[in-house]
Specification:
By secondary structure, this protein is α+β, with helices and mostly antiparallel strands. Helix content is about 30%, strand content about 25%.
């Protein structure tokens, strides 16, 4: 019994004696700017059944291009067509490309009709900038109990 107790005590001391130190990790996100819109187009989309699911998938697909800065969905329950207002950088993506991307979503569920478009004055254009985020990780280290007990036994 005494040996088992001594063995478990020594084993627990070795388990607590982790002396590897990991430095604080610091992660920061890069400041990046979203697409600067210089054109807005309004489209009617047929085939949308809900604002959150269908509108969300359209918004996600268009934002992933990196050229679309905003997608506003005006969903009215019961209407055959829904209206979307899309702000984008026409130097990075064309209207026909946007229409094509929407029509390819969900295995061709949506049909798109462009109602109109307008150019945005560059003085009015605002770019959204994300702020820098620093994340640090600190570690807690238990004292090396083996060294403490060894020093007590040796004395």
């Amino acid at each position: 019994m005494n040996k088992v107790l001594m063995f478990s005590l020594v084993l627990s001391l070795f388990a607590c004696a982790d002396s590897t130190k990991t430095p604080n990790k610091s992660t920061s996100s890069q400041n990046h700017k979203t697409a600067v819109s210089n054109e807005t187009m309004v489209v009617e989309v047929e085939g949308m059944v809900c604002a959150m699911g269908c509108g969300g998938s359209i918004r996600k697909e268009l934002k992933n291009t990196g050229a679309v800065s905003r997608v506003e969905v005006d969903f009215v329950e019961g209407n055959k067509t829904q209206t979307l207002k899309i702000s984008f950088d026409n130097k990075l993506i064309s209207q026909s490309s946007i229409v094509s991307k929407i029509q390819k979503l969900n295995k061709g569920q949506f049909s798109v009709n462009v109602i109109g478009s307008s150019y945005i004055d560059s003085k009015e254009t605002k770019s959204e900038e994300t702020s820098k985020v620093n994340v640090s990780e600190s570690n807690f280290e238990l004292p090396n109990l083996l060294e403490i007990l060894s020093s007590l036994v040796i004395q």
